[in-house]
Specification:
The chain is of the alpha/beta class. The protein folds into two domains: about 130 residues, NAD(P)-binding Rossmann-like Domain (Rossmann fold, 3-Layer(aba) Sandwich), CATH 3.40.50.720; about 180 residues, Rossmann fold (3-Layer(aba) Sandwich), CATH 3.40.50. It has ten helices and twelve strands. The strands form two sheets. Strands 8-7-6-9-10-11-12 form a seven-stranded parallel beta sheet, with helices on both faces. Helix 3 packs across helix 5. The longest helix is centred in the middle third of the chain and has 20 residues. The protein starts with a helix and ends in a 15-residue tail after the last helix. The N terminus is likely disordered. Bound molecules: NADP nicotinamide-adenine-dinucleotide phosphate (NAP).
């Protein structure tokens, strides 16, 4: 409501005086110096002359809000001529249900974001596939040469979510050689990946996934998707890797499955509360690896191209790309 409170202090300039699109960058303040030069360059490359600012002080005649959670905008009511909100994040659960937002919401789909996630997931899948921990942790004079991992082609990896990122991650894992299956809401074709959908498809995928990667969005439908019953479908000794969203997993059920030895390890990048509170049992659990929501950061050099393209489309009367379905929540 910071913005709504501030509106009374501003005098509105006549809208007709503004011909260039006005773009408000709404993110935590430390991001502006990093993003500003890339945003200018990307807009120039797209042939757009725009007024850019990170200052939400009125007039509220902004045409576009470039949005990242934690910035100054948390109420869209004061904006008088907003054409679209352009999210810097792929996940839009923080904003998608905002009743004050009544213009198109576009999520971030960007090569850098996708490639970053492929790197992170591949690294963590390989850690567990190869059993690297046994050698990294124990530089203790013991010659541990007794365990030979299967070849990647004999390792079954499941990917939940086959969207812009999940689909590319599944294909990359399959190209690497892993026996990869993927699951999505609607039936889908994904290069080199055996795909499934529906409840029966989920059960089958869980039943065969020695390593499970979750790249679903946080929506009411995906809340607690991996509950005790679904976690129990994973093969004994399976590993869970979650760079999707914390709400996908029932935390207590996961801890219980790890404690029983049903699951061997969980590598978690995202959590219901972030930062993950220091007292949370995930931090101290020997079978949990916590990473601080760093699986794939939105990178200014590539993401601003996606932002500029949508502004160009908005200014040309073309449909926006990567529109969020507000009913589905992603
Ligand atoms: P996306 O393009 O929107 O794809 C979402 C996928 O999930 C689609 O395949 C969709 O199925 C599927 N899905 C959604 N709801 C479902 C349901 N109820 N049942 C089954 N499948 C469902 O998203 P994305 O770009 O791939 O990104 C995925 C998520 O990754 C983001 O939402 C975000 O939470 C997370 N992420 C995390 C980080 C990080 O640093 N940790 C970085 C970027 C993104 P359909 O194909 O049938 O629609």
């Amino acid at each position: 409501m910071r913005l709504a409170r501030a509106v009374g202090r501003q005098s509105l300039r006549p809208e007709a005086a503004l011909s260039r699109p006005r773009v408000l960058f709404s993110a935590p303040p430390e991001h502006w110096p990093l993003w500003r030069p890339h945003l200018y360059a990307a807009l120039a490359e797209a042939g757009i002359e725009a007024d850019l600012t990170d200052d939400p002080a009125g007039p509220w005649t902004f045409d576009y809000v470039v949005y990242r959670p934690g910035g100054p905008v948390d109420d869209f009511t004061p904006f008088t001529r907003l054409k679209a909100v352009l999210s810097l994040w792929a996940g839009v659960e923080d904003i998608v249900g905002d009743p004050s937002l009544n213009v198109p919401l576009c999520r971030m789909v960007d090569e850098g974001l996708t490639l970053g996630m492929i790197d992170w997931v591949t690294g963590h899948v390989l850690r567990h596939h190869l059993g690297l921990d046994a050698h990294l942790a124990g530089q203790d004079g013991i010659w541990r040469n007794g365990i030979v991992p299967p070849l990647a082609r004999d390792r079954r990896v499941g990917v939940l979510g086959l969207g812009a990122i999940g689909g590319a991650v599944a294909t990359a894992l399959a190209r690497f050689g892993f026996a990869t299956e993927g699951w999505s809401r609607r039936p889908k074709e994904v290069a080199h990946v055996a795909t499934r959908s529906g409840e029966a498809g989920l059960d089958a995928l869980l039943g065969s996934s020695e390593i499970l990667v979750t790249l679903l969005p946080a929506t009411p439908e995906t809340e607690d998707l991996l509950d005790a019953a679904r976690l129990a479908r994973l093969p004994r000794g399976a590993v869970l890797i979650n760079p999707g969203r914390g709400s996908l997993i029932d935390d207590a059920a996961l801890l219980a499955a790890l404690d029983r030895g049903d699951l061997a390890h969980a590598t978690l990048d995202v959590f219901r509360i972030e930062p993950l509170p220091p007292e949370h049992p995930f931090w101290a659990h020997p079978k949990v690896t916590v990473t601080p929501h760093i699986a794939s950061e939105t990178r200014p050099a590539t993401a601003t191209l996606a932002i500029a393209e949508n502004i160009r489309r908005g200014e040309s009367g073309l449909p926006f790309r990567h529109l969020v379905d507000r009913d589905r929540g992603y």
